[in-house]
Amino acid sequence: MSVDAATVRRIAQLARIAVTDAEVPHLQGELNAMLAFVEQLSEVNVEGVEPMTSVTPMAMKKRQDVVTDGDIADDIVKNAPATENHFFLVPKVVE
């Protein structure tokens, strides 16, 4: 895949980057080099390779799924202008 000058300008516009006409050829070369590298990666045989989370084998760290800051509903809603049963009351906006 090759990127032309119009595509470079379009990418710059989408990224909200100001690109002058003098910069377009350089950026075109850079983008084409990146795409060529990605194409090389697609040629690598990864059949049977397990996904990794790190370069060293390790188990993922997990935490206990417990509530550690519960039972403070009164503190959470104490500054609200209107509450009911530990819920915030808001004005109706849809008829």
Q: Can you give keywords for this protein?
A:
95 residues, mainly alpha, two-stranded antiparallel ribbon, flat
Describe, in short, the structure shown.
With 95 residues, this protein is mainly alpha-helical. It has 3 helices and 2 strands, in the order αααββ.
How would you sum up this structure, described in words?
It contains three helices and two strands; from the N terminus they run αααββ. The chain is mainly alpha-helical. It has a domain of 38 residues. Strands 1-2 form a two-stranded antiparallel sheet. A hairpin with a 2-residue loop joins strand 1 and strand 2. The longest helix has 19 residues. The model has no long low-confidence stretch (mean pLDDT 90).
What is the terminal-to-terminal distance? 53 Å
The average pLDDT score comes to: 90
The major sheet is characterized as: 2 strands, antiparallel
Give me the number of helical elements.
Answer: 3
* Low-pLDDT residue spans: none
Strand content: under 5%
Question: What percent of the residues sit in helical stretches (DSSP H or I)?
Answer: 25-40%
Along the chain, the helix and strand elements come as: HHHEE
Topology:
Elements: H1 5-14, H2 24-42, H3 73-77, E1 83-84, E2 87-88
